[in-house]
Specification:
The complex is a heterodimer of chains A (about 300) and B (about 270). Chain A is an alpha/beta fold. Chain A is about 35% helix and about 30% strand. The longest helix of chain A is centred in the middle third of the chain and has 16 residues. The two termini of chain A are about 40 Å apart. Chain B has 10 helices and no strands. The chains are: A alpha/beta (about 300), B mainly alpha (about 270). Chains A and B meet through helix 2 of A and helix 1 and helix 4 of B.
Chain lengths: ~300, ~270
Amino acid sequence: METIVFDRVTKTYPVGLRKKATALEGLTLHIAQGTVFGFLGPNGAGKSTAIKILLNLIFPTSGQAFLLGKPMTDTAVRSRVGYLPESPNFYDHLTPEELLWFGGKTSGLTTNQIKERTDSLLDLVDLARVRRQRLRTFSKGMIQRAGVALALVNDPDVVILDEPMSGLDPLGRKLMADIIRRLKHDGKTVFFSSHILHDVEDLCDQVGIIVKARLRRVAGLADVLSVPATGWSLTVKATPDMVHSHLTGVTATHTARGGLTEIRTSEMDLGKLLDRLGALKEVLVSATPLRPTLEDILLQEIERADGESR
Amino acid sequence: MKHLWPIAKITFLEGLRSRVFFGLFIVALLLFSSTYTLSYLFPRDVVKVAVDLSLAITSLVGLILTLFLGTQLLAKDLERRTIHMVLAKAVSRSEYVVGKFAGLSLIIVCSMIVLGGFAAFASWTVDLLTADQYGVVHWPTFVLALSMMTLMLMLLASVIFFFSSFVSSTFLALGLTLVIYLIGQSVEELKHFLETGAEGVAISPVFLKIVTGVYYIFPNLAAFNFKTQAAHGLSVSLSDVAWPFLYGVFYSGVMIASAAWIFRRREFT
């Protein structure tokens, strides 16, 4: 079953009296239940616009979006959806407990269900000890975690996270990643936009790359990243001078890295390089194939979009 | 409209815990304490002045409270995008507007109960310390004046909501509401003056029509003023109360329905 559908969604805004700016152009996207979907793109690409259309906060100029088979204008369907906005702002004078009570009540939960969910979620996001403290005293990371608890209070089928990792410290990012993995394990659909490509590589089943209002590529993460290695990176515990004397006749570059030396070479020259480095074999620290990362792919798409608009 | 209560409750808590609320109550206490000194400046009408003054202070503080909390509660949601969090839940935009208004109305009612309590205490102690020949407090009209004042503030809150539904700046919504308040307080008197005419003053029929139009479009806030009746212990008929009451409920209803209608069409970027 498809839980999120964008059907030729376009959004334009008036700029001045006559001009129009396109924030989203003909977005068509189908996301199946249980998928963790990473929505990637530079700032202003249209990621948040798509999310806001899905939640009926803004209206598409043309096209339609569906959540769990219902049009985005259906208010009731949102009781099965959780949403974490980018840099969330909640009511300063409320406590996490009151915030979750609000989220639970507006999703149709009973008082007992709310109490149960509040206890488990505040434990999960590590805010149990400050459950009766006002949100205005919270750090940015704590607010973000309160937002996650609010998004999950109704045990949603679809979780929409707008830049969930931004502004989080490493511990906060790990917690968020663990929560996304847990949601996936529970068969929930997670739709999240992010700039932090490492997290997307780590967590997503499927990625969509959007640049300049247009969706450029949608694919399973494995398809995106399963491309032949373009070269190899070898790290050896030796000085650059020692390495340099072994590189004659091999196409390779080397860089010093705090007592280690990284050598990059092509797939073709790898065997030759390893032969030459025979004497240094015992100091070989690592050998990694060089493949385009998600970041490289995103940059390629941005360059391609720049080329098209020129 | 099944989600009104959660929205009203968080609005109530948010407003109740804000600094503006407590600051205003401290100012109100200081102003009420001045009633004792100022009333005795008019020895023959000590109680009347005490009642008039305490009700005027209640009205003033209630007005400031409504204006500030009214503009803040809604505009802050829009400026800080807290509204995204609310509307991402299974809450309709109409529920949001009506729930917010219910929360603010609850704050107004509670504030007026507390402020009215202060006003009653100030008037009662002056009454207690003064011989009956210098006047007594007429409690039924006193309570009536407070109740109608509360209704007027709720009507004003609905006007704030109406403006906030399409104006993006807090200050503009506040300014427009203040203008409405000033017009609403004086338009009845102006219309009456123009209709009865003044000797030697020629009144243009076009101007009279404009004022009459303004009278019907803008809320007639003077209709809710029962301070004089309370101070002087004048009798009030049922129709004197029923009409302003129905008018207030109807006008607030129209304002909130219009705000909800605009909100349903608004985009929250």
